[in-house]
Amino acid sequence: TRLIDAAQINEDRMRQRIRAVVAQAYYTLLQARESERLSSGAVQSAANHKVLAERQFAAGTVDRRALVQAELALSQATRDLKSAELQVDGAEVNFSDVTGLPRDTEVVLPPVPPAPPALEGALDQALRTRGDIRSADLQTEVATFYKNAKIGEWAPTVDARFTYNWSENKGFIGENGYWMFVVSANWMLWDGGLRIAQTKEEASKVRVAQLNAQKVRDTAESEVRSAWQQYRRASEALSATEHEVELATENLRMAETALNAGRATWLELEDARLGLIRAQLSHLGERSARDLAAIQLQLAVGTL
CB 3.0–4.6 Å: which of 73, 175, 266, 296 could bond 52 by disulfide? Predict the structure, then answer.
């Protein structure tokens, strides 16, 4: 029964790893499609920027340097869009291979995956919930049972039998029934050292199982610590990009206000729009990285 439980636990752990792979494919596709959308907007913005630069250059209000910068920005935005389109193709193929769903399956940004609030809590939870730890403990328990059973073979073998017979004819003893209770014991004192060797072998298997269980615990702790550090760094990076998006949004708002007041040019406004798009792309990438880090942390803890 313990071995069956251990096998079932290993299967559950494998399913957790599969869910992590599916999540990775999902977020990769989501990020690729959103990057393509933002990159398309960046190309349109850069094209508008170039048109404005050409008009201002023709009017003599800017020098050729502004026109060259606008052409360079459009070329870079177009290259980024083509790269994003290739990423979408690859992400769709990978997502379809992993999940069996059509390539054009719609994906939306899911809720933030829950994560343990502290490293110590994550370590404690991993020791309680990780399937490979429980499986290793069960295998140690099974090995201990085998060893104890082998030690028990040194005890004598005791058999008992109770027999009762009843007959209508009382016979010579003058009773209708009679009973008999027999107890026998066998004790093998010497078997050529076989039981000693087998006991040592089973004790060795117990030690191997215990060492393996400790190794699994050490590996789990290392994985949890690594996943936690990755999640913490990803969370900090996400907070930074959130602030960058806020600054880029405020910069665009001020550029629009300055343009309406005649204190800014259309080129400055387009620069602000491109800056916001870049900040949004960075934020999307860090959001995906943070969510995937949370999923990896769940996998390391054993709660995925």
Answer: 266
